C-alpha cells in the first residue's frame, strides 16, 4: 500500500501515478550494467522489466565475493495510516547510491488480489517508487500466475488420485492443500467440490486461499536453486492417509510438473526505482502463515553485486523481522549488518491514544504528549531487534503534517533514552536526497561491530521455540495451548519435524495476540490454537487466532473505479 | 496435439523435443524485420517471443494495404489418430516462403490445462513446429493467466455485489458466469460456494470452466482494438435479475478493471517456426461454445504484412470452418481466398470402417477399399466448403505407413470425382519442402476467382440460422427443439439478440450430433437443447448435447511423467 500521507491529500503534490508517469526510465539492461550484469544475463520482459537467468546467478556467485552489507527495513506495530516501510526501503536504496555506496533494493512483489480491493499500489510511493508501477501491480512477469497454476496442479493431481482409486488411502477429511486464487474472492473460502455424481469425483469440503498464502510461495522464496526448489516441492505435505501418515507432493507424482511450472518464477525480477537504482522485486509470501520477505535468490544475487542491499520484512519487528532473523537468515546463511526501524509521528500518536477503536482525526493536531505515550511501542521494537545483536537505526518517516516539536521529541528519545541512532527521512517527498542522513547513519552502524545471533536454536523442543518468541519478542508472560495444539506438537515431534524453526501467525495490529491492544501490552498469555508443518518451506506454522487467507472486497471495491482509455492510459489503479 | 504418426513411433526419427532442441532460432526481432516490423514495434519476452505493440499495429494498418491472401486450414471429421492440421498450417507457412511468397502463420495458443493430461503439445510437430515449444505450451506470454484473472474478477465482483446488498437484484439461481481455471480439475465442475456463514457471502451453486471456454477468450479473439475489447467486455451478460432482465459486466462496474487486466493479452504474440517463418500464436477459444480460431488482431495485422496468411480453424469444416466463415469473417470483414482441407489415409480408413468403437489396429494394413468407403466424409467436407464459394485444395497429410496405392486412390478421387485440387504433404517429416506442391496449388487456387458468401444473413430468425447450418452443413433432415430451447429463442428474440450469428456447439466426432456415427450420416434430426447469448462475443451459442467445459485428468496423467533437472532441462512434456 502507498502510505496515506498528507502529501497525497495535498492537491499541489503530484499523485504516485503522475510522478511515475513523468519519470524517465532507462533500459533495464543499462540500469544493471554498472552492477556487473550484462544484457545476456537477462531475460527481457519489455524494456523495463527483466528476469535474471539462473546460470548468470551461478556465474556471479562464483566470480564475485559476497561482501555486500545487508540492511533490513522493519517497522513499529502497523497502524491504519501506513508508516511507509516500502517507501523507506526504496528511498534508502536511492540514498545509498547518492552518498557513493553502490546499493540495490529487494522487496516483495505484490499480489493481484488486493489491488482490486482498496486503492493503493505496493511499489512504494512519491519519489521513492519502483517502476513500472502499473505492470508491477498487475501481471508483472507472471510469477503469481505461475504459482497459482502450480498450486492448483497439486490440488488437481490429488483429487484425481482420489477419484482414480485412491491407492494412497488419502483421508478426504484430512486434506491440507486447499486450492488457490490470486483474487479477493471471499465466497471461495469454504466450498464443497466434486458434486455432480460419480463422473466428477469424490465430494468433499474444500476452500481457496490467496496465492500469496500458498506454501509454494514460501518455497519459491526460500529455495536457493532450481534443484533446491524441486526438493522442497517434493516434500510438501498435501494430506494424511488413514493411518495419519503424511502424503507429499512427491507421493502423488507432481514434483516434476510443479517445478516445471515454476522454472521461470524462481528467476529474480529486476526493475528500477524512480532514480534508476536497480530493484529486485521477487516473491511475496504472507507474513503470518509464512515468513513475509522477498526471495532468497534475489538477496543472494544482490549480496554478490553491490556494497549494500536494502531489503524489507513484513509488518513489525515481532513478525517480519523476527522471521527474517530466525528463518530466512538461518536458511540463507546470512546476517543483517544493520536494521532500520521505520517509525512515524502519527503511528506513535496512534499507539499513545487511549481510545479503541482509535480516532484517526485526533492524530492531525500537534500532540507531543501523545507521541511520548506511544514510545513504549517503539521502545519494545528497538529492544526486540537489539536482542539479535544487530545495530538499530530509527527512521522517522516524516509526513507533511508532523510538527518540528513532535519530530524532535522522537529524536531526543531515541538518542537520549534509548541510545540508538535516529534520522528523519523525507524520501516520499524528496526521493533519495531525503534519506541521505539515514543512509550515512546506516553505513556507520553497518560498519560497526555486530554480534548477530538467532533467538533460539532450531533443535530445541517446539514449545521452547514458541515460548521464547512469546516472552522475549511479544512480551507475553507465557503460552497456553488450546484445541489440538498440544496433540499437534506431539505428533509433529513424533514425525521428526521438531527441529524446524517456527513461523508464528499472530495479528500484526498489536505486539500481543489481541488486535485492539496498542503500545506494548503486558500481563497477557499467548494462546496457541494449532501447529502444522510447512515441510517444503522448512518451518512449523503456529496459529494464535483466526487467519484470513482469502480476503474479500469492500462494499466499494477499487476495481469499480478503474478505467482504461482507447490509448491504454489507466485511471483509478492508484 | 502432435499427430500420432508412425514417424514418432519410429526410433530412428527424432522426437518433437529433439527436433525443437536442435533447431537454431534467430532473435525474434530479426525474424519479423523482413516483414516490416521493427524492434521498436515489439515488446520482447526473452529473445524468441514478443508481443506486437498496439500502436505499431495501427501504424502498420494505416501504412500498408491489406492485400495479403488468406488461406484457411481445416480438416475432415477428426479421429483419435490426429490428422495433422496444425502441422499442415505451420508447414504451409514455411512452404510458401520457400516458393517465393512472403507468408505468415497464425494459430491458436494452447491452454495449460490439457498439457498435464495427455502427452503431446499444441505447437505443431516434427519439422513443422513453432518455437519455443516448451514456453508456448506452458505460460507463454501470460495471456491465458490474464484471462483467468479477468474472468474471476468478474465472478468476484458479482458475488461481492450480492453480498453487499444486491442492489441489482441478481437472481442467485440465474447466474450465467461460472468461475474459470486453466487446469483439468474435474471436481470443480459442480461446487457450492459461499459457505461459512454471513461473513463469507451468500451460498449458491457454482462451477468452474476451463479458461479457454470463457466468453472473455472469445471476446479477446474477436476484438479489433482496445476500445472494441472494452465495449465487448461491458456488454457481457453475467446474470439475470428477478424480472429476467440481463445484468452485464458494466452493471457491476467491472468493465474498466477487466479491460486493464487484458490490456497486454490483446497484443498478438509472435514467435517463429522451425524454418524461421514468423508465426502469430494468439488466443485459443473453444471450438464448440465459441468460434475456435486465433485472434482477429493477429489476422488483421498479418494481412497488412505479407502476401499470404495461413491460419487454422478448430475441428472439421462443420465446426471451425463454418464458424470462421459465418462469424469471424463477418466480424473481421475479411474473406478466405482458398481453403485447405487436411485429410489422411488413416482418417479415411477410420471413417470407412463398419465397426464402433473403431479398431485402430485395423488401420495399419493397406486397405484401399476402406479408404474409398471413407470418401463420403471427405466429400461432404469438400461440399461444405464449396458452399461458401471458396476454392478448396485437399491436403493429404502423408504418414509413413500409408501406401502409394492408398494415397493415389485419394488423389484420383479428388481430381476425377470431385474435381478439386489435391496435394500430398509431408511437412511433418520434411518441413516446408514437403508442402511446396500444396503451396503452389493454393497460390493457383487463391489467385482464381472466388465468390465468397456467408451461409446465412445475420438478421434472419434464429431458427432459420440453426436450420440452415443443420441441413446444409451437417446433412440433417431438420431440427428439433428440446427442454427450454424454444423458450430461450423466444426470450432472446424479445431481448433483441436475434440478429447475431449462431455459434453451434456440436460433437466434433461426427458430422451428426451422435459421436458414434462415422462417414456422412443421413436420416437424422439435430436436437437443440439450449440457446444462450454470448453478447460480448456477439453470437448466440446453440447447444446440441452435453458440453464438457472442464475436462479431467486421466488415470495416468502426463504430469506424473514430467521432470526437470537441475540445469532446467525438461522431460516428459512432449
UniProtKB/TrEMBL annotation, chains A, B:
Top-level lineage group: Archaea
EC number: 6.3.4.3
Alphabetized UniProt keyword annotations: ATP-binding, Ligase, Nucleotide-binding, One-carbon metabolism
MF terms (GO), sorted A to Z: ATP binding; formate-tetrahydrofolate ligase activity
UniProt keyword annotation of ATP-binding present: yes
Catalytic activities: (6S)-5,6,7,8-tetrahydrofolate + formate + ATP = (6R)-10-formyltetrahydrofolate + ADP + phosphate
Annotated ATP binding sites: 79-86
Pathway: One-carbon metabolism; tetrahydrofolate interconversion
PROSITE patterns per the UniProt record, alphabetical: FTHFS_1
One biological process term in Gene Ontology: tetrahydrofolate interconversion
EC category: ligase
Family stated for the protein in its record: Belongs to the formate--tetrahydrofolate ligase family.
Protein name according to UniProt: Formate--tetrahydrofolate ligase
Organism field: Halopenitus malekzadehii
